[in-house]
Amino acid sequence: MAIRIGILGYGNLGKGVESAIRQNPDMELAAVFTRRDPKSLSVPTKDAQVLPADELEGRKGEVDVLILCGGSATDLPKQTPQYAAMYNVVDSFDTHAKIPGHFAAVDAQAKRGGKVSVISCGWDPGMFSLNRLYASVVLPEGQDYTFWGKGVSQGHSDAIRRICGVKDARQYTVPVPEAVEAVKSGAAPQLSTRQKHTRECFVVAQEGADLARIEQEIKAMPNYFADYDTTVHFITEEELARDHSGLPHGGCVIRTGRTGMDLEHGHVVEYRLNLDSNPEFTGAVLVAYARAAYRMNQEGMSGCKTVFDIAPSYLSHKSGEELRGSLL
Amino acid sequence: MAIRIGILGYGNLGKGVESAIRQNPDMELAAVFTRRDPKSLSVPTKDAQVLPADELEGRKGEVDVLILCGGSATDLPKQTPQYAAMYNVVDSFDTHAKIPGHFAAVDAQAKRGGKVSVISCGWDPGMFSLNRLYASVVLPEGQDYTFWGKGVSQGHSDAIRRICGVKDARQYTVPVPEAVEAVKSGAAPQLSTRQKHTRECFVVAQEGADLARIEQEIKAMPNYFADYDTTVHFITEEELARDHSGLPHGGCVIRTGRTGMDLEHGHVVEYRLNLDSNPEFTGAVLVAYARAAYRMNQEGMSGCKTVFDIAPSYLSHKSGEELRGSLL
């Protein structure tokens, strides 16, 4: 019998989860839960129910794992603890400073309900975190570097859209090639924020808007842009739709370190992602961890987990014997 | 109290394990066990005992994890099952076709003794296997590629040394750059053995040996060289010592795959190692998994495990809270 998945929140990430489920024959999309009017949603998976979010309380028997596809800023801090006692849940919570509090809140509920929760899943946090951990335990004397991009940052794009006179915008985070090369050389450079990434903005301005003022406001925005070399391009709505409608992303985690009695040998460990669709790849990670959550709960486990706490074999539908035979 | 490590076999790998232990303050090298005369060994770790291998039976109280540093061909198939009931053990068994039998033999002994064994640890099998698994569960519709090198293959170097008239030799496995680029482009090429790697040999011939015959014998050797484009360079003993005394290696695992309702989005996941010292990096992986074996056994687990069965958090001396705070 297939693992029955529920999705809460049907934006880009929810749709990415839906398409990932189709690629995993041991899983099925049982229901999409939404805070919008269910009738307004067009869900390609024909057998999936589309239900209002407030029906989640009564659907425990119909869903094995609930994948929470809301935002980290306001949705997940409420939703994940709220449903962790009712369902095995998986989320992509990525507000780093708030992970300890989120973990504690979710853990208490998951244990209360005897369910497994997996938080902070995706590629960063997620696959990148795993690679930081594996590389750091093998090379304890070394340095970690994470570069993001080239890719669309939705948070930065939103920040530009809030500026008066801006109709639409798309922001790309771009790693500085010279910085990546310096890291890979093993030189272990100290890199400032500005030295690691640049920011490239494509902005559609409202008619008659003061372009110079918009550009200045973007470049001066604290946290988002002020610490970076930022380029602003004004383009038309048509150009934005034609050239910047995708959500590509990626990046790399690099650890360099030394071994030997006199630390005479250098090593470089690099993990790199190049993704055409950030939400679809993230959704695919969430689905693999949904399988793990289900299987761990079937074995009697409960509580909040992260990617660090989950043996890789739980992610695969293959048996240990098959995994050893095909991938070891 | 530190985790007390024993090493069986004090060649390149055993020495790599020794230097890795020095980089992990929660571990100490308790003893080196050898089949040679213990007096003939010079072990830099002053507090470590150097003992004959046949004393292993009587040293159970002095060693928490025994790391087996013998060869896969003849040593490990005997040694790992032999000691798996007495000690938590870790090995780097890499004869792929024989892993199922090795796993079964080790598992039975480990369960009998209530100990944890970790087999087939290192970078391939090991870190590369993990990356094959993680990438395949996230991108179920895709293709895996593993490239090795540029690096020294000890098995191929040994094969050349067995040819009549050869005094010494070093063989490098080299990935074909065009093949790697074709894979990274997402084109999912079908690649033959010859298209993926070339082999480069540096040979010191005995005085008066027939160089043309040696070159021909190398290039025609089945399994080792016949399926590859092979280059043979004859050099002097001094040149070999000067330019080819290291044991660098590395390579990459690449998975490309597609997602989306119409598989419209492509993704590339790449894991790459660039290692100055193959045995030291492998030793460092074995040491991290020795920590995991010890901790899992402390929690009451037993039996044979591979990297697939071990939650990443067991590899680190840090607490779950510290890991979430620093690496997630």
Would you give an account of this structure?
2 copies of one chain form a homodimer. Chain A is an alpha/beta fold and 328 residues long. Chain A has 11 helices and 14 strands. In chain A, helix 8 (211-220) links the parallel strand 10 (197-205) and strand 11 (229-234). The longest helix of chain A is centred in the last third of the chain and has 21 residues, at 278-298. The radius of gyration of chain A is 22 Å and the shape is globular. The model of chain A has no long low-confidence stretch (mean pLDDT 97). At the A-B interface, helix 1, helix 3, helix 4, strand 13 and helix 10 of A face helix 1, helix 3, helix 4, strand 13 and helix 10 of B. Strand 13 (265-275) of chain A pairs antiparallel with strand 13 of chain B, so a sheet runs across the interface.
Write the layout of secondary structure elements.
Two copies of one chain form a homodimer.
Chain A: E1 3-8, H1 12-22, E2 27-34, E3 49-52, E4 65-68, H2 75-84, E5 88-90, H3 99-113, E6 116-118, H4 127-138, E7 142-148, E8 151-152, H5 154-161, E9 166-175, H6 177-184, H7 193-196, E10 197-205, H8 211-220, E11 229-234, H9 237-243, E12 249-259, E13 265-275, H10 278-298, E14 303-305, H11 320-326
Parallel strand pairs in A: 1-2, 1-4, 2-3, 4-5, 5-6, 6-14, 10-11
Antiparallel strand pairs in A: 7-12, 8-9, 9-10, 12-13
Helix pairs in contact in A: 1-10, 2-3
